[in-house]
Amino acid sequence: MRSLYAHLGTTSAGSLLLSSPKVKSYNTAILPPVIQAVPCSLATPNWTLSNPSTSTEPYKTRGKLETTVTDLQNELTLACQHVVVRDQIIEQANATMVFQNMGLKRMNEALYQKEEKGTADRAKLFKGKAQCLSSDEFYNAVRELDEGRKSKAADKEAKKLERERKKVLQAELDKEWAEMKERHRKAVEAWSADCSKLVAEGVRKKDLPPKPKLGKKPKLPVVEDNESDEEEEEGDA
Asked: Rounded to an integer, what distance in angstroms lies between the CA atom of residue 181 and that of residue 136?
C-alpha cells in the first residue's frame, strides 16, 4: 500500500482516480507494466546446503561443524536478502495492479456513460443490475440525475430567454436599418438634384460633390457558442 500511496502522490492523475470528474483520454493514468527481477548484483544462495548430507563419515570434527554452521549462516543471510527483495517486487506489482484496476474501472464507467447516453433515468440508475436503494452510491446517482435534469431545464430556459432577447434586438436593428436606408435614399435624391443644378450651371463632373454612402448594416454582436466545446468534452469522456 505504501507503493500505491506513492503512485497516487507523485502522479498528477492520481487524484482523478479518487474523485468524480469525467475521465478524458489525455489525463487518464495508465501505468505501463514493469517486469522486475532480483538484481544480478545479489548473489544466488547455495541451495545445496539445504539438502541432507550423504557423507558416510561416522562423525565430523568440531572444525568441520563450525565451517558448516558458518556456511549455513551466510547462505541464510543471503536467502533473507532474496526474500526481502522479492517481497518488495510483489508489493510494487500488487500496488501497480490496484492502480491500473482503479483506472480501468473509471474508464469502464466513462464508456458505460457514453454507451448509455440518452437512455432512461431508470437504466442509468440501475445499470442493468440490482442496486441497494439505501446505499450512498445509489443516493449520489439519484442526486446527480436530479441535478442534471435541473441543470438542463435551467439551460433550456436560459437559451429560450436569450433567443427572445436576440429577437427583440434584431427587430430594433432591422428598424434602424430601414431608417438608415430611407435617410440614404433621401440624401441621394437631394444629391442628385444638387448635381443636376450644378451641371446646369457649368460645373465639371469631377468637381461635383461625392455621392452619399450608405453605412454598414447593423448586426448583433457575435457571441461564441460553447455548446460544441461541451459536446467535444462529452465525446472525450
From this structure: 66
d(CA 51, CA 73): 15
Tally the C-alpha atoms within 13 A of residue 97's C-alpha that lie toward its C-beta.
7
pLDDT surpassing 90 at residue 2: no
Nearest CA to 190 out of 214, 211, 207 is that of: 211
pLDDT band at 126 (very low <50, low <70, confident <90, very high): low
Half-sphere exposure of 152 (CA within 13 A, CB side): 7
Half-sphere exposure of 13 (CA within 13 A, CB side): 15
C-alpha cell at 198: 450644378
Q: Where are the domains of the chain?
A: 2-48+60-115, 136-220
Residues in the chain: 237
**pTM for the full model?**
0.40
Distances (CA, A) of 187 to 203, 206, 213: 20, 19, 9
Find cell 435534469 and name the residue: 149
Cβ pair 177, 159 in contact under 8 A: no
Other beta carbons within 10 Å of 121: 13
